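Summary for the funding panel

The consortium committed to producing paired sequence-structure records for every protein in the target list. Below we show the first two records in order, beginning with the earlier of the two.
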Amino acid sequence: MHQLRIHYFQHVPFEGPGSIQEWSVKNGHSLTSTHFYINETLPDLNSIDWLIIMGGPMSVDDETKFDWLSKEKNFIKNAIGKRKTVIGICLGAQLIAQILGAKVYPNKQKEIGWFPIRLTKSAKQHPLFRSLENKVTVFHWHGDTFDLPAGAHHLAETNAYPNQAFALGRHALALQFHPEVSSSGMERWYVGRACELGSAGIKVPKLRQESEIFAPALEIAAQRFWAGWLVLL
């Protein structure tokens, strides 16, 4: 197996790589990172094979609040232009969508918790998604959504968020949901986003219970998913 140089962008302390880190270590891939919230510097684009962009509570347009955001966007744009493998999760997916010319905007409602996504007809033709079941229960935590960029393949949807995933060729993948979470890692989310949970009327015990049920299967599926994406390259 080709040994990858994987780099991830992290925007807040409590939304890390999760099962991506476990998969990387297990398969001998190197894993480096830029933590923007402590002003770490960007890597040399030529020194990485994969770029994974994690989530965060900020908006893609919050450049006046976060001075690193414009630099991050420029780096992602260059990575896509050089056909590096670029995978965006939640905020990362929204950044990819905006960079590719699509509109990103607040959705009518937030989607927080464990809900199934439905695969589209296009997904059933995609070599990575066609082996998945039509409905897969994954973790969601988002308030913004995006339109599909031109030329993108629409892959997954929910009723509240019709655009849950898209791919651009075989080198860019945007996932609105969170495939990287584990039940143990969720505790940091509950603390980091406690105010948001309170305002949405969502109870942590309910999330814990659902995570214990659904997270183990998602972790297994995610390991297969990253391996499958590697095979496509």
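The next record, for a separate protein in the list, is shown here:
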Amino acid sequence: MVTRGWFVAVLLSTALAGPARAAAGGPCAPPASMDDGWQTAEPEAAGFDAGALCAVLQSVAEGGANIHGVLVERRGRLVAELYRRGKDRSIWSLFARETRFGPAVVHDLRSVSKSIVGLLFGIAAQQRTIDLTASALSFYPEYAHLRSPERAAITLEHVLTMSTGLEWNESVTSYGSLANDETRLYWDWAPYRYVLSRPIVAKPGMQFNYNGGGTALLADIIVRTTRTQLRQFARSALFEPLGIREWEWVADPYGRPLAFAGLRMRPRDLAKIGRLVLAHGQWEGRQIVPAEWVTQSLRPRIATSDGLHYGYQWWIGTVDWKGRRVTWGAGIGNGGQRLWVVPELDLSVVTTAGAYNDPQIRRPLGDVFRGIVAALRE
């Protein structure tokens, strides 16, 4: 794990030699030139202290945390890109294997998938005029036996903000075990009935409870309202307009995409999602996601248990920059998958890692993110 002392030491030493290291290649080398729609920019031109940014990348390259990749994008251009060799395993893998990561290698996004489903739901909501105050149960007439005044009060907005009030146990240290409700989503023949039938333990809208089952519902409602399979809808409504071609959506044993955790994508393409959000849903002048939906998705709607807030399938927090707090939004996935967007700084940061079910990865990743923000001069 990258300790804070080690990070600071590397930051100070490398800041003096950053430009020289970048010129020599290695972790501070400029992003690769590829035919994928990205343009690049030198750190100084993007408003960074090149030495300080290089120090952050060097800390990752020399650190012990199983971080696989770091990308920095600002104002529509890639500024920094680092990949490492590391141990990794996909959702269905029993054992980790050594993998050499690079700009053309797809990576598990795990629960960052939820934030992308949130954007897809916004597109579908505009196309089909979906009312967020509608009861989630109203989309499932086949489950009439579940209907009660209390359960019917759970709206789509409650599902989007993970505040349904339904009993749900999903902790990072228990993924894959029968004690975790998400595990049931992989194997249950009727996962949506399972989600909607959970006991009610709180009034909807009053309590945040992390719930991948809600994301599965949102994805299924996209399918029901658009009459388009999730992969096809994602491809035509979001990925193809962004020029995203290399991606996978891992399925359960019945062939259903695991909406809450199954996306695999190149980090460069995940950075495109970040740029789309920063541009209020636009890509190259075309409105892909409704601008108002992006705004509402990043609005803090309910406090979480760890001092953050949650919007429409996006996490919201703050980071220090030049002595004041600026707001960020993020897609966060098990193992160290992150997509941070900082609208006020027009900045997005992507990380990929292989520390699945290990909450200790949060600290080194937080150090990396804060270091990148601190390296920004203007």
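Regarding this second record: Residues 114-226 form one domain. The chain has twelve helices and 16 strands.
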